[in-house]
Amino acid sequence: MKYVLTGEAQGTTYQVIYYALDSIVTKKQVDSLLIKIDSSLSLYKPYSLINRFNQSDSGMPVDHHFLTVLEKSLLTFKETNGIFDVTVQPLVQAWGFGVKKINKLPDSSTISKLKHCIGSNLLQVSGTKVVKKKSCVKVDMNGIGQGYSVDIIADLLDQKGITNYMVELGGEIKVRGRKQPNNEKMRIGIETPGADEFERRVMQKVIVIEEGAITTSGNYRRYYETQGKKISHLIDPRTGYPVENELISITVYAKDAMTADAYDNALMVMGLKEAMHFIEERKELAAHFIYKAENGAIRDTMSRQFYQFVQQ
Fold first, then answer.
1. 228: helix, coil or strand?
2. Euclidean distance between CA atoms 44 and 80, whole angstroms
3. In the chain, which segments carry CATH 1.10.3980.10?
4. What Å distances lie between residue 247 and 209, 221, 240, 251, 289, CA to CA?
C-alpha cells in the first residue's frame, strides 16, 4: 500500500510517501517530530532554544537536536574554510532576511562592526553546553535545519522497518528504495529558472536515485529588489555582503540531507570553478550547477558523479 502524509512546517510544506502493509507512520508522529525540532532550532519561535541561546551572554546547555546540527555545522565550517558559518545570523538580519523587518540596508561601517561577531571559531562545545567566546555571537541554522529535519523523519521510517520511501520538506529530499508494487525507481525533477535567473522556474532534468538525499540552493528562491538591484539571501560571511557570482542554483547529492543541505549553500558562495573543484575532490558528494554564462545565457553543468543520477 502507498501512504502519503502532507502538512506544513518551518514556513513551507512537507510530503512523506512510503510503501507498507499498514499505516505504521502517521501525520501526527511526523508533526510531533517537527514541532520538537522547531522548539530547538526555529528563529521564528520566540520560546525556542536557539533564541534563548542567541540572547545568552556566554552560551548554555543545549538539546540533542541543537548539538547534532551545530557539530555538523562546525565540521562544514572547517571543510569549507569558513564559507559555511552558522554565526552569520547578525548579517542575515542586517540584510533583511532575518525575523525582524529592516528600514534600510547596512552601510560598510555596520558590516565591519558586525563581522567582529562572525566566526564559528567563536563557539565551543563542552559536553552538552555550547559556549560563546563573545556575547554578540548569534547562530542561524536555517542553512542546514531543513535537511536535518528530513533526516529525522527518514530515521523514523527506518526505525519502523519501512524500506521504500521519499521524504520531502521545502524541496529538500531523502529517498530510500523504490515505488511499490511495480518496483519503479523514484524520480525527482530539478527546476531551473527561465531566461532570467529570477524568473519563474521550469523543470529541466529528471534524476533517479535509490538511496540518498538531494537538496537545492538557489539565488532565485529568496531575494528582494532595492534601487534596481537584486539582493540575494546568501551572505558571504567572509565579506559580510550578499553573494554576487555566476551561479543561479546548485543541487547537491549526499548520503544524508543534512550534509547535502549544508554544502549547497556553501557551494553557491564559492562560485562555479571553486565549487566544481570542491565537489570533484569528494567522492561522497555530487552536484548539478545552473549558472549564467559570460554572454548572459543560462547554462548547466554537473560533476562526474552526478551523471549517474540523470535520466537520459
1. coil
2. 27
3. 54-140
4. 24, 13, 18, 11, 7
Backbone angles phi, psi at 89, to 5 degrees: -50, -45
Q: At CB < 8 A and 24+ separation, what contacts does 110-116 make?
A: 111/240, 111/241, 112/240, 114/90, 114/240, 115/91, 115/240
Instruction: Give the span between the Cα atoms of 141 and 264, in whole angstroms.
Output: 14
pLDDT at 201 over 90: no
- The predicted-structure confidence for 279-292, as pLDDT tens digits, reads as follows 999 999 999 999 98
Q: Which ranges in the chain are annotated with CATH 3.10.520.10?
A: 178-309
**Look-up: residue for cell 540575494?**
232
Maximum CA extent, the chain: 61
pLDDT at 154: 98
- Alpha-carbon distance of 232 to 224, in angstroms, equals 7
Is pLDDT of 250 > 60? yes
Q: With 90 as the cut, is the pLDDT of residue 301 above it?
A: yes
Phi, then psi, of 99 in degrees rounded to 5: -70, -40
Backbone dihedral region for residue 178 (phi beyond 0: left; psi -120 to 50: alpha; all else: beta): beta
Assign domain 54-140 to its CATH architecture.
Answer: Orthogonal Bundle (1.10)
- CA distances (Å), origin 28, targets 3, 12, 284: 14, 17, 34
Q: Which of 90-99, 160-169, 195-204 has the lowest mean pLDDT?
A: 195-204
Taking the model in full, what pTM does it have?
Answer: 0.93
Top-tier CATH class for 178-309: alpha beta
Cα–Cα distance for residue pair 175/186, rounded to 1 Å? 8
Find the angle CA(281)-CA(233)-CA(50) to the nearest 5 degrees: 90
The closest of 236, 234, 248 to 288, measured between CA atoms, is 248
**pLDDT band at residue 233, thresholds of 50, 70 and 90?**
confident
Report the alpha-carbon angle 305-217-293, nearest 5: 75
Residue 136 class from Cβ within 10 Å (0-12 exposed, 13-18 middle, 19+ buried)?
middle
